[in-house]
Design a protein that fits this description.
It is built from 13 helices and 10 strands. It has 342 residues and is an alpha/beta fold. The longest helix has 18 residues, at 2-19. The structure holds zinc ion.
């Protein structure tokens, strides 16, 4: 009930903001200051009852089409390479579209819309998953939970931390499953992510799905269009702050080499996206030394020409915060400017 009320208030606020023309003025002012936005999407598809998707992971195709229409009114949609090389629009602010993980719904649901508007975009590929039938461990965990009727007890064998153990005993269901995934994600950053892979492998889940990732053929076709660019999201979608420097280097190296060998990138501009957005000074240095040209995070801020290109800010776009044109505009309009603090 409370959630519904909050939703209604937010929607009402978005309609007032949208009709006030305030965002248009902000855009003009920000364009003159050289500010620009990078939007981060994951999946462009509707949820289905047989497959769990984290709420922050998707935008419905119909909402996505409306977003592209409304964003095009306020922004000049440009490539990531253009902004990283300092080519910024002054009439309208520049806006870059990025898509993480290389899901195949990008090809079926986003690419046709981008082609229609001639909008460039960058897709970040976890190269070890592309063209395979593997799934990310977070998706596998969600599937395992559905299979086990939302009982998280099996994780207790692996977790020592009392406060986490207590949370694992909680009753989970479809609507709070993302709390568990977040808990496991946080725990595994501090501890050993491999444990969770083992649990999922024991349960034969890692290889139990039809591919949800793009195929190389789809990628080559999109590359040919000249609109869609590609970048690295590591090879194994590894959270770089949670592994050794040697492992991080290997991930960065393998992924970059594969993209170069397949001629999906040129060595003069290879973008990178931190899995989970998680980075540190050390990781950013490794990304730079590995030969990447820039890196995007999930810090929700506008960028400007002084923003560190190995810590580019990015706005996460998902259905619950951007399901209508007015909500989309509120999401962008309420994004803080970069004060250079991070
Ligand atoms: Zn990712």
């Amino acid at each position: 009930m409370l959630n519904l009320l909050v939703r209604i208030i937010k929607q009402f606020r978005s309609i007032c903001y949208f009709s006030s023309a305030e965002f248009g003025k902000t855009c003009k002012k920000y364009a003159r200051k050289g500010r620009y936005l990078i939007l981060g999407y994951h999946r462009i598809r509707s949820p289905s009852p047989d497959q769990y998707m984290e709420p922050g992971m998707y935008v419905n195709p119909a909402s996505f089409r409306k977003q592209m229409e409304v964003i095009g009114k306020y922004f000049e949609i440009v490539s990531l390479e253009k902004v990283c090389k300092g080519s910024i629009c002054n009439e309208k602010p520049s806006c870059v579209l990025t898509f993480d993980d290389g899901w195949n719904d990008f090809y079926t649901n986003a690419y046709p819309v981008l082609k229609k508007y001639r909008y460039p975009a960058t897709v970040f590929l976890p190269t070890g998953y592309i063209g395979s039938n593997r799934m990310l461990w977070t998706d596998a965990l969600a599937r395992l939970m559905v299979k086990r009727k939302f009982d998280a007890g099996f994780l207790l064998d692996y977790v020592k931390d009392e406060s986490i153990r207590k949370k694992l005993n909680k009753k989970y269901n479809r609507s709070n499953l993302h709390d568990l995934i977040h808990l496991v994600k946080t725990y595994s950053i501090e501890h050993n992510q491999e444990i969770y892979r083992n649990i999922l492998m024991e349960n034969d889940l890692m290889n139990e799905c039809n591919s949800d990732f793009l195929t190389w053929e789809q990628i080559f076709e999109m590359k040919e269009s000249g609109l869609i660019h590609f970048g690295s999201h590591t090879s194994e979608h590894v959270i770089l702050t949670s592994v050794s420097v040697e492992r991080a280097r290997a991930e960065l190296h393998h992924s970059r080499e594969l993209l170069l060998n397949k001629k999906l990138v040129c060595s003069d501009f290879i973008p990178f996206c931190y899995p989970n957005g998680t980075n540190s000074k050390v990781v950013a240095e490794e990304v730079k030394s590995a030969g990447y040209s820039c890196a995007v995070t999930v810090r929700r801020r506008w960028n400007d020409l002084s923003t560190d290109i190995y810590g580019l800010n990015r706005i996460g776009m998902h259905q619950d915060v951007s399901f209508s044109p007015s909500m989309t505009v509120l999401r962008l309009g309420s994004t803080p400017v970069d004060n250079g603090s991070g």
